[in-house]
Every structure is written in structure tokens, then in C-alpha cells.
Amino acid sequence: MSRIVGIDLGTSTSEIGCIVNGAAKLIPNTLGKLITPSVVHIGQDGEILAGEEAAEYLFTRPDCTFMEVKRLTGSNEKLKAHGKEYAPEEIQAMLLRYLVGCAETNLREKIDRAVITVPAYFTDVQRRATAKAGELAGLQVERIINEPTAAALDYGLSNLKECKNVLVYDLGGGTLDVTVLELFEGVIEVKASCGNNHLGGKDFDEIIMTRLADPLGDERALMRLKKAAEDCKIALSTREEFRVSLPFLLTGKDGKPISVDKTIGRNEFEEWITEKVQSTREPMLSALADAKLGREDLQIILLVGGSTRIPCVKKLVEDTLGTVPHSLVDPDLTVARGAAIQAGLIEGSIHNKDLVLTDVCPYTLGTAPLERGLFGSRQVFDPVIPRNITIPTERTKLYTTAADYQTEVLIHVYQGESSDPDNNERLGELHLTEIPSARQGKEQIEVTFGYDMNGILQVKASVVSTGRQVSAEISTTGVKAGPLLDLSKWEEAEGARPFRPLIRKAEKLIASGRDIGGDIGLLTRRLKEALLLKNQENAQELRDQLMLMLEVMEKMDKSS
Ligand SMILES: Nc1ncnc2c1ncn2[C@@H]1O[C@H](COP(=O)(O)OP(=O)(O)OP(=O)(O)O)[C@@H](O)[C@H]1O
Ligand SMILES: [Mg+2]
């Protein structure tokens, strides 16, 4: 069998490693460096550069040079270069290809298998998109593993005799992950993970940028400003103040050049970011609570990710947990080392009788069945797999038909912690047909959720009486990652006006409890979503579907 590499595909930087003589080793890139900037440049003739060589084009060709692409993972956003569009995973694949190419040169062998890390708090869609990027890079993705878990593997392998409770606090360029785990003589049991997919060093850079200048849509000025802001931030981790000087940054509206020359103090900077830093306290407490541990039960705190070098970040962790964090792992390299160890466990170069790992599913996953109440019926979120359950896992729930003579059902799949499905992320749906026609509640439907070691979800549904099963993977098309849209604001969206009468009509019908099966509710929500996303084409398609459904309802009402 061929060798498996471990890759930390980060927002700002990426690393690749493998097992050599039973130990994790990072592999240098073609420039001899272990850390590669996560930057990709596409040249005029389609030539692709990645890493430091690509980063040089950030200032001269920002239009076809991409950074921080990881934050777009799983979204429908497209990146444009030379009139061609690329999906985020295509760009990620180019970066992966570069890293693997460096490893091939270094090891003098072909590499086509990899373990890739993702933030623990990455959604199902984001994990699939990451696996897709690996595939596009010509890799067989053997496992997707959580970044803090990888850090724990790295620590665990060098401390096989220990029995300790560990908290990993990982604040990188774009994501925060907090994981609580137990180490017991080589058995690593992840107890809980919490986090935020949209918080990291890049947010701190942006805060500094807004205090320095407004680049007025000038891409090059924006890049220079970003670089200066990051340099300033990094300097302030060790210095009390830093002078940012950007002569002739851009041309003002009056045609005069604008320069920046400003000295920023550490105190001032820490004040600007305090709200964001403080927001990381909640995930720590929540992960501890889910792990059923008090802060006094923690023996070790591992700091991972470049942003944990900021003094006030370290201090917040210490104040929240009452323990001084250790510098026992290398904050930049430990995740890639852990990925390499996981690769070693799979390829057999590390024996898993020495090191055993169990991980958790950080989110609650469930369906949204119809609940009948005093005020009609509505969809409620019904958890099938509760969050922070050890994986792999499979859970089954039994439902019954909601209406008389109902012969099909759409099973909606959501991920999140709110009892209102609208506040959770919709992952997809499963369509079960050929339910024998019977009175309401007579036919039973069994729904099974399977969550595998990669954190990827499989949903099955079957009719109990006939055994008819749909075992297709849930479809995840059209799902956006990133912040949830505020659907209540749909009326403010551009071009929403003509849709108002239809949406009002649908809402009335839903409120009266006649939306059996919840499909009108679903279409209405999707329509609002499309309007907010300014996707007119999609909105019109949804409008047609919704109109058709309302018409059918009206006809049925008339005939009964
Ligand atoms: N000394 C420092 N002080 C403050 N911030 C730093 C320092 N060194 C690096 N950073 C910041 O850390 C971030 C990069 O960290 P890291 O490489 O761990 O992230 P990543 O793995 O790319 O991101 P993620 O894990 O979120 O996907 C950048 O925002 C960088 O500016
Ligand atoms: Mg990272």
C-alpha cells in the first residue's frame, strides 16, 4: 500500500506531514519551509502558483490571486480569474496539489492518499466540500479529522502514559475550535467540541484596517492595508507599540494621494478586539459543560493556532479556566503532525494498540416533523443525534404519518441547537414515497441517521409496514455555509415586492395549520432565502412551485 500524508489545510497557512520511523515529520515545501501560505495565483495562461510564490501576486494581481479561501468552503460563492469562474474547492484543490507535489519531490514517491483536517465545528456541507477538494487534487481522502483532535493526537503520542483531562483552544486565521478530551494511557476520548467557524486572526486584521483607512474599493490598496494590519497585529504580540506607515496608499476623491502613518499601541489594539476575544469564553464553558467537567478537572490546556500568541487571548483562556495554558505543542505545526499520526494509524506505521482515538459529533442533527398544537401545526426540530455524542454512531427514530391517506413524505434534515428549524442549518431532505394509503398515524416511518468517522452524515428512511427504504445520501445542494440569513428581513430585499402577495397567502395558510407535510412552509422559506440572496432566477422557479401548490390546495378546499 502507498503512503498516506496528513494535511492541515488552514485559512492562512497550510502544512503537510507523514510518518517516518514511527514519528510524525513535517515535509518542507519547494522553498524549504514547513509553513506554506494558503494562497493560490492563476496566471493569464492558466498557470497555477501556490504558497509564497502566489502570495507575491497579492499586491500586483489581487484580481486573480486568492487567499483565505477556506472561509468559503461549502458555499456557492464563485471566485473569478481571467473571466473564468472557480468553486472554492477547486482553488483549495490547487493548494492541495501544490503541497502534495512538494511532498512527492521531497520523498521521491507518488502520493495519492491523504488525511485532511477541518475545524471541529465545520458543518457536514463544509466537510464534504473539503473531501471534494481532495478528490479534485487527485487524492483519495482516507479520513477527514478535526483539527483540535489532531492536536490531541500529537500530544497524546508523545505522552502515552498520561491520564489527564485536556482542553484544546485553537484560534487560527479564520476559525475557533475548543475541544475537551480525556487522555488515558494512549486512549484519547474526545468529550466535547464547540466553536465558531467565522472567528479568527483575519477578523483582527480587519478591525485594524478599518482604523487605518478606507481603501474605497481599490483592490491593491486593500491588499497593502491588509498586509500592514497583519504585520502590526503580529508585532503587537511582542511589542508595546507599532508604527504603520503606508505612503501613497491610494488616491482620494479629490485626486490627492492619501498616505497612512499611525502608531498603534498594544492596549489600544486589545481594546478594539476585546469583544471578539471575549466571545470565545462561551464556547470554552459550553465544551466543559458538555464534557461534564468543571474547570478544576482540567490538568492541561493546549494552545493551538497563530492567534493564540496574542497576549490578551492567552490571558482570557487563563482567566476563564483558572489554569495557565501550556506551550507543550507547537501551535503552528501540531495539527499537521496530528494529521500525519492519523495517517500512520490508517497505513499501519503506528500501531493502534498504542494509540486509540474516539471523536464526537459537535452539532445536534435531526429532522423537522410536524407538531400539532393548539394553534395549528408547525414544524419543530426533533434531534436524532444529540451533540457531542461519540462517533461513529447510528440513531433511529420512529415517526407516523401526519395526515389521512398520506402516501409520501419529505424528511427534512437540519443541524443546530434551536428548537425552531428555521434557526438551524438545513442540510437537505429525503423523499420517501409509496407509503400505503391509511388513516393518519397508522403508518410508521423509521428514520436512521448515521454519522461516520469523517463527520459525514448518511440518512435513511423506511416504511415499517412494507420495508420500503430510501437510503440515498441526503442531498446537500443549494445549502450555504456561513452566517444564517435573517429570513424575517425578506421584505427589505431588492426585488421582493412582487412576491409579497404570494408569500402572505402562503404564510396565512401555514398559520391556519393546513400545511400538512410542511412543504409550503419549506418552499416559502426557500423563496425568502432566494430573495435575500438576490437569486431572482431561483426565486421565480420557487414562486412557480409555490403557486402550483397553493392552487392544488384551493381546489381541494373547494371540492371538500
Ligand atoms: N505572533 C502572532 N501574533 C498574533 N497573531 C498571529 C501571530 N502569528 C500568526 N498570527 C495569526 O494567526 C493566524 C494564522 O494562524 P494559523 O496558521 O494557526 O491559522 P490557520 O490554521 O491558517 O487557520 P484556521 O485553523 O482558522 O483554518 C493569522 O491570522 C496570523 O495573522
Ligand atoms: Mg489551523
Fold topology:
Blueprint: E1 4-9, E2 13-20, E3 23-26, E4 36-37, E5 39-42, E6 48-50, H1 52-55, H2 57-60, E7 65-67, E8 79-81, E9 84-86, H3 88-107, E10 113-118, H4 124-136, E11 140-146, H5 147-158, E12 163-171, E13 176-184, E14 187-196, H6 201-212, H7 219-236, E15 241-251, E16 257-265, H8 266-272, H9 274-278, H10 281-290, E17 300-304, H11 311-321, H12 334-347, E18 356-361, E19 365-367, E20 370-373, E21 376-379, E22 382-385, E23 389-391, E24 393-400, E25 409-415, E26 425-432, E27 444-451, E28 457-463, E29 469-470, H13 500-511, H14 519-532, H15 536-559
Parallel strand pairs: 1-10, 10-11, 12-17, 14-18
Antiparallel strand pairs: 1-2, 2-3, 2-4, 5-6, 5-7, 8-9, 12-13, 13-14, 15-16, 18-23, 19-22, 19-25, 20-21, 24-27, 25-26, 27-28, 28-29
Describe this protein's structure.
It is a single chain. With 560 residues, the protein is α+β, with helices and mostly antiparallel strands. The chain folds into four domains: 279 residues, 2-Layer Sandwich (Nucleotidyltransferase, domain 5), CATH 3.30.420; 75 residues, Actin, Chain A, domain 4, CATH 3.90.640.10; 118 residues, Substrate Binding Domain Of DNAk, Chain A, domain 1 (Sandwich), CATH 2.60.34; 76 residues, no CATH class. Helix content is 32%, strand content 30%. It contains 15 helices and 29 strands. Strands 1, 2, 3, 4, 10 and 11 form a six-stranded mixed beta sheet that branches. The chain has a six-stranded mixed beta sheet with strand order 17-12-13-14-18-23. α5 crosses α12, α13 packs antiparallel against α14 and α14 packs antiparallel against α15. The radius of gyration is 26 Å and the shape is globular. The N and C termini lie far apart (67 Å). About 2% of the residues have low confidence. The structure holds adenosine-5'-triphosphate and magnesium ion (MG).
